[in-house]
């Protein structure tokens, strides 16, 4: 099963419609299940729901052989953490799918690192969807410990200096 | 309020989805402190409630000014009620509002990965950005 997820805040008709037409043309031979948020286009080739509870979302994610989604960091992270091949299509400001083009920037960066496949346009989708099955995402290395340490040092500093914090500020 | 010694009252503010995921990677930092959460949709609240109160203020963006006002009003109520000493936020709009409101009441701000200049500690997740702005640090990525 391919899990299609487009986030829940804004509609993303362009992607849901594009996936539906890829199925029309028989270019994906797997079943698709989708979380489509406020998207008004209703796909006819696969089952879709507006939103899934976290537990059910995780279950679908585990079952999926691959994912297609918008280029949101939440989606990208989930795919990488679960080792799922992910094809993203960035939401674009010019179509009012998002407030700025940060998804485009994220898509370019993460594509360059080999973390995701990207369809920048609907017409790229059939080709990229074909590559999805054989795509092995590069593992991402993060520095959570370093960032956490820096934040902790700052908090400790506040406690020690007893800077004039609101409330009692009595560290 | 800020009861025992060595405890800060920390507001953790992040929109549901990627913003919240990023923030929660840093959970170890506030284990010893007293926390509450501000987020944007109810479904994300569940597991968070174990560690602190969860306030759901709703989604908003610049295209819907009325929603922005409604979310701003809800943030205002939360901040006046809870009076955090520190806000840690990864954005987006609601997180930013919480930072400004809490800052106005004297809280210290830790802003991770976006652009406001009110933060006491400002961390970005691309080295290019840290090179471009003063007082902005890159120490690595969380996601």
Kindly describe this structure.
The complex is a heterodimer of chains A (171) and B (143). With 171 residues, chain A is of the alpha/beta class. Chain A contains six helices and six strands. Chain A has helices at 13-24, 54-63, 73-81, 102-112, 125-132, 144-161; strands at 2-5, 32-35, 47-49, 66-70, 86-89, 117-118. The model of chain A has no long low-confidence stretch (mean pLDDT 91). By secondary structure, chain B is of the alpha/beta class. Chain B has helices at residues 18-24, 45-48, 65-82, 93-104, 127-132; strands at 9-14, 34-39, 52-56, 86-91, 108-112, 121-124, 137-138. A seven-stranded parallel β-sheet of chain B has the order 3-2-1-4-5-6-7. The chains are: A alpha/beta (171), B alpha/beta (143). Chains A and B meet through α3 and α6 of A and α1 and β5 of B.
What general form of chain A does the structure show?
Answer: elongated
For the biggest sheet of chain B, the summary is: 7 strands, parallel
Helix content of chain B: 25-40%
Low-confidence stretches of chain B: none
Overall pLDDT score of chain B = 86
Share in helix of chain A: 25-40%
Total beta strands of chain A: 6
Number of helices of chain A: 6
Order of SSEs of chain B: EHEHEHEHEEHE
């Amino acid at each position: 099963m391919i899990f299609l997820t487009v986030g829940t805040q804004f509609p993303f008709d362009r992607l849901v419609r594009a996936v539906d037409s890829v199925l029309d043309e028989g270019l994906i031979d797997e079943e698709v299940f989708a979380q489509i948020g406020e998207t008004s286009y209703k796909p006819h080739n696969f089952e879709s729901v507006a939103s899934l509870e976290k537990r059910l979302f995780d279950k679908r994610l585990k079952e999926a052989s691959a994912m297609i989604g918008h280029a949101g960091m939440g989606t990208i992270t989930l795919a990488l953490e679960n080792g799922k091949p992910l094809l993203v299509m960035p939401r674009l400001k010019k179509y009012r799918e998002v407030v700025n083009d940060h998804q485009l920037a994220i898509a370019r960066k993460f594509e360059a690192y080999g973390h995701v496949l990207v369809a920048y346009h609907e017409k790229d989708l059939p080709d990229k969807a074909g590559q999805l099955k054989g795509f092995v995402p590069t593992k991402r290395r993060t520095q959570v410990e370093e960032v956490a340490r820096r934040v902790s040092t700052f908090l400790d500093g506040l406690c020690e200096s007893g800077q004039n914090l609101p409330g009692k500020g009595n560290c | 309020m800020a009861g025992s010694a060595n405890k800060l009252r920390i507001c953790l503010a992040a929109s549901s989805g990627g913003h919240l995921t990023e923030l929660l990677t840093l959970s170890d930092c506030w284990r010893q402190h007293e926390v509450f959460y501000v987020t944007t949709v109810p479904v994300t609240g569940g597991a968070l409630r174990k560690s602190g109160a969860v306030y759901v203020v709703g989604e908003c963006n610049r295209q819907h000014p009325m929603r922005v006002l409604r979310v701003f009003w809800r943030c205002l109520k939360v901040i006046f009620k809870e009076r955090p000493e520190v806000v840690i936020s990864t954005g987006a709009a609601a997180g930013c509002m919480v930072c400004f409101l809490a800052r106005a009441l004297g809280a210290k701000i830790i802003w991770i990965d976006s652009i406001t200049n009110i933060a006491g500690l400002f961390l970005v997740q691309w080295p290019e950005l840290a090179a471009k702005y003063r007082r902005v640090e890159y120490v690595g990525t969380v996601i």
